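Workshop exercise sheet. Pairs work together: one partner reads the sequence aloud, the other fills in the structure field after running the prediction. Swap roles for the next sheet.
Pair: D.N. / O.F.
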Amino acid sequence: MRRIIVFFFILFITRLAKAQTWSPLDSMKLSLKNKPNIILGMDKRNSYVVGMPVNVFGIRVGYDYGKLALLGAFYSASTTKEGTANTYDYMILGAICEYHWYKTHRFRVYQTLQSGIGTVDIKETNNITKEIQFTSKMILPIETGVTGNIRFLKYFGLTGGVGVRTSLTPNTYYTAPYYSFGIMVFTKDLLKDIRNFNK
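Structure field:
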C-alpha cells in the first residue's frame, strides 16, 4: 500500500511538471497570489478498517486560490469487527493540498495530497483469556486521491473520487483504499445570491 502512495505522489509531481511550461513551485506560487475563496463543507469517504466497511466523516475548511486549495480538516470513524466485540475509533486532524487539473464552471478534476495526526482507541478481546484490552495509539496517516465534480444545477452537483491511504505508525489498521460519491452544494454561489437578495 505504501508503494501505491509513493506511485501516486510521483505521478502527481510528474503530471505537474508536464502540465506547466514552468516549474510546479512557480505554478503554485502564482496561484497563491490570487484572492482566495473560503471553502467550508462536509466530507464523507467509504473505506475499510480490519476488513470491515467504514464511513469516514469529516469537516473541511480552507482557501481556494484557483489552481490550488489549502485546507484543514477533522475526521472521525468508528467500526466493530464482525463476529467480535473489537472496536476501533479514530479521530484525526488533517492538512490538505488540492491541485486542480481541470476547472470550469461546470466541471472540476483535482488531486488531493493529505497528511494528518490523530489517535485510534482500540478495544480488543483476547481469544484465549477473554480479557478485554484497551489501547490508544497515535496515528500519522498520509493519503492521495483523485476527485471529479459536475454541476447539474446552479447550486448542486455530483462528486465522486477514489484514493489510497496508509499510516506511518504500525498496528493502527488504517491502511486501505477509499472511495466517495454524493451530492455537493456550491456554497460560494449560494451565499453570494443570498447576500445579493438581501440588499
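Discussion prompt: The first strand starts at residue 37 and ends at 49. What would you look at next?
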